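explain this.
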Amino acid sequence: MPITTTHVTLTDLTRMLRESAGEEEGVDLDGDVIDTPFIELGYDSLALLQVIGEIQREYGVEIPDDAVVDAETPRALLDLINAGTAPAA
């Protein structure tokens, strides 16, 4: 079975954050937010889990909930998503 690679961009991620959890007043997701902690962007773990659910549906990528907890910035989350995390056997 061929391995498919997923490439989610920061633009994709910020779109999903806006759609799933809105955008905090005073936060510019179009700015340089790649290394800004999600908490500073106004997103808590529940918001991130909603976005992860959307990513899993849209891109077919399985991401363990406990791995998401460790992804504190958009860069860390994108690295996790784009690493091609597969479902546990």
